Every structure is written in structure tokens, then in C-alpha cells.
Amino acid sequence: MPEHDTDPSEEDTGPPAGPYTDATRARVVASYEACELAELARAAVPIGAHELNPDGTVRSAGSLLTDAAHVLAAAHRFFEAAAVYERLGGADWECVGDVLDVSAHTARERFAPAEARFRAEPHSPMATREGNGWRAHLAREPLEAALDLDDWVRRHADGDTDLGVAPVSGGLVRQAPR
């Protein structure tokens, strides 16, 4: 994901604010997972000039299936991130279960571990283990990640709606001062 065009410190001219809410941090992680999913799916659309043999057979057996497996894994990460976001935003297990057409108990069994990991991850020594460092960074530094996602959304806007200059970062919410 490319660096954002602006320095976050240049945009924050108000008084120091508290940290971002848990739901805000979770929403940024879900946004990132959606971005990753979209990028993986988009990359699978073109048919390469040398992908097929002249007789129509595949030159590199398993390559598209591998791409599809990566898209499916990304979809699962997005699905889990969405459930964590809903929970941190106030949804109870009954609501999560209703949306997914499963019992509250089943929803809790499926997503409670992900919620617990999210709550612990930014402060956990496990946050730097293989594959978790960037997601932990997203949760710790949501503004930086959101600014990068703003750039991504603007580059991929289809012109149907005016998303403004801050389509992701504009929605971040900080905790109320104590």
C-alpha cells in the first residue's frame, strides 16, 4: 500500500485528542482487509497474453486456483474483521448471529477469539509475529493507515459518488477526553 500524500501532523491543528475508539481502530482494520481483498480480486481479472497455450490449455497449472485461494483467505479475514468491528461498535452476539443467520452461541464461538486477539494485539508481544505486525500497526496507528486508504479509495473511485478528500480518515472517532 503506498504512502499517504500528506503529513498527518499537518492536518491535526486542534488540541491534543485522546486515542481512537476501539470501534474506530477495528473499522480501519476492516477497511484495510477490504482493500486487500479488492486488490487480490482485481489482479485475477486480466487474462495474460501467455496464460493459455494455443490449444486452449493452461500454461501454468494451478495458478488461477492459487489466486482464488488467496482471495478466499482475504475474504475470510475481511469477514472476521467486520464481525470484530460490529462487536466493538456495540453489537451483541444475538445481532451478529441474526445477521449471519446463526445462533448467538455459534457467532460467539466463531468470532470471540478474533475479538480477543484484536483487543490484545496492539499491546501484545505476539503482535510482531509473522503476518501480524502490519495489522497490529493498523490498530495502533489508525490515522496513518486511514490516510493511506484515503489515497487508495480516491485512486479507485469510479466517479459515481463524491467521496471527498478523506473517505476513510474523515470517519475516524477519538475517545472522549476524561
* Number of strand segments: 0
- Describe the largest sheet: none
Helix content: 55-70%
Compressed to H and E, one letter per element, the order equals HHHHHHH
Question: Structural class, please?
Answer: mainly alpha
Mean pLDDT: 85
Query: How much strand content do the residues show?
Result: under 5%
Could you tell me how far the N terminus lies from the C terminus, measured between alpha carbons in angstroms?
Answer: 35 Å
Identify the overall geometry: globular
Low-confidence stretches: 1-15, 125-130
Radius of gyration (Å): 19 Å
Task: Give a brief rundown of this model.
The protein has helices at 8-11, 22-43, 63-88, 93-100, 104-120, 133-140, 142-155. With 178 residues, the protein is an all-alpha fold.
List the helices and strands and how they pair.
Elements: H1 8-11, H2 22-43, H3 63-88, H4 93-100, H5 104-120, H6 133-140, H7 142-155
Helix pairs in contact: 2-3, 2-6, 2-7, 3-5, 4-5, 6-7
Characterise the protein shown here.
The protein is mainly α and 178 residues long. Helices cover 56% and strands 0% of the residues. The protein contains seven helices and no strands.
Index terms:
mainly alpha, 56% helix, 7 helices, 178 residues
